[in-house]
Automatic annotation (TrEMBL):
UniProt keyword annotations, A-Z: NADP
Phylogenetic classification of the source organism: Eukaryota, Fungi, Dikarya, Ascomycota, Pezizomycotina
Membrane spanning residue stretches: none
Organism of this sequence: Capronia epimyces CBS 606.96
Domain of life: Eukaryota
Similarity comment: family membership: Belongs to the short-chain dehydrogenases/reductases (SDR) family.
Keyword Lipid metabolism assigned: no
Keyword Cell division: no
Protein's recorded name: Uncharacterized protein
Compositionally biased residues, Gly residues: 221-232
Single GO term (MF): oxidoreductase activity, acting on the CH-OH group of donors, NAD or NADP as acceptor
Residue stretches in coiled coil: none
Disordered: annotated span: 51-122, 205-235
InterPro entries: NAD(P)-bd_dom_sf, Sc_DH/Rdtase_CS, SDR_fam
Length: 358
């Protein structure tokens, strides 16, 4: 495992769909790199799953789930209420995943923001529905009230409604409800997250996205993120003002069978990322997209029992018959939110084990 190096030290990050899977992994990785993490989801922990999924997706959850994030089951947690948020902040030594029974309910484990607290980090959970403009506006405002600013916005929340069906459905078989729900969360939710984070980034004249400039990179003290100076010691040519990371999918770059609404929503995510990068480059705001491949998460558990579909997916991975790990994608998210990506914007980054090569 890569040793954290404090690349996000002192920065404030919002992550939607934070309660499980990829969203949780990103939160934990950001906290390990020194960021204060503002976790947004419908619930502080992943809700119990009542059905299994049948098709893969790089990010998202089934329609029956009451959380917007990807992946593996997340335990419950202990938190202290503060208005509509639950705050968890602490200092101390790093600890492993809390054992069963450490949460408020017997047999349940701590969730994302409580796990960060128990490892000595800073985190807050806030309930919001990413499809509601007022929810997202208030969530960003609550983050600013809690931490003073927003440096990083990760729009991870997503659903894969089509993965709940017993077989892949083509376009003429796809219901309007499936289409509307998928686009509402995966496209509109991302748009709203970008909109209100951008308003804050643009309006914060006192923002200092790089509170601990690295002289070896040529950073200018108090001027923002890393620049073109590199290791030459020359002053940077620009200062970064904010970082947006949108979680798209390889299915936003290439299609997959029986997922018309999911592919459309992730294609929209990729193009929205590029458009925002173009519009806000003069404001020194970075916007990039993560495009994960098929991940070993709760959403793909049922897929792994379907030999034909699984064999087709595994055959497209040059590294061998394996699904990806959320931790690998989370590391890429850290990179895109750090000074290491100071000269990158508008790029969809595949983290897919070579899936797109085939």
């Amino acid at each position: 495992m890569t040793t954290p190096s404090g690349r996000l030290q002192g920065r404030v990050a919002i992550v939607t769909g934070s309660s499980s899977g990829l969203g949780q992994a990103i939160c934990l990785a950001f906290a390990a790199e020194g960021a204060s993490v503002f976790c947004i989801d419908l619930h502080p922990t992943a809700a119990p799953r009542h059905n299994t999924s049948t098709a893969a997706g790089a990010a998202g959850r089934t329609a029956e789930s009451s959380s917007w994030s990807t992946g593996v089951p997340l335990p419950s947690l202990h938190y202290s209420s503060r208005g509509s948020s639950a705050t968890a902040t602490a200092t101390g030594t790093a600890a492993a995943t809390p054992p069963p029974g450490s949460g408020p309910n017997p047999g349940q484990q701590a969730g994302t923001h409580e796990r960060i607290r128990q490892t000595g980090g800073e985190a807050t959970w806030h309930r919001a529905d990413v499809t509601r403009a007022r929810d997202m506006e208030l969530a960003v405002r609550a983050c600013v009230q809690q931490y003073g600013r927003v440096d990083i916005m990760v729009n991870n929340a997503g659903v894969s409604v089509e993965s709940t069906h017993p077989r892949p459905l083509r376009c003429h078989e796809t219901g309007e409800d499936d289409w509307d729900r998928t686009l509402a969360v995966n496209a509109k939710g991302m748009f709203l997250g970008c909109k209100y984070a951008l308003k804050q980034m643009l309006g914060d004249s006192n923002a200092n996205p790089n509170p601990n400039p690295n002289p070896n990179r040529g950073d200018v003290s108090g001027s923002g993120g890393g620049g073109a100076g590199g290791t030459s010691g020359q002053p940077q040519r620009y200062a970064s003002r904010g970082w947006i990371v949108n979680v798209a999918s390889v299915q936003g770059l290439v299609p997959y069978y029986g997922t018309p609404s999911y592919c459309a929503s992730k294609g929209a995510a990729v193009m929205l990322t590029k458009q925002i990068a173009l519009d806000y480059a003069p404001d020194r705001i970075h916007c990039n997209a993560l495009c994960p491949g098929f991940l070993d998460t709760r959403m793909t558990q049922n897929l792994q029992s379907q030999d034909r579909l699984l064999a087709d997916i595994q055959s497209k991975h040059p590294f061998g018959g394996t699904l990806g790990c959320v931790d690998d994608v989370a590391k890429a998210a850290v990179f895109l939110a750090s000074d290491d990506a100071a000269w990158i914007t508008g790029v969809p980054v595949p983290v897919d084990g070579g899936y797109l090569l085939r």
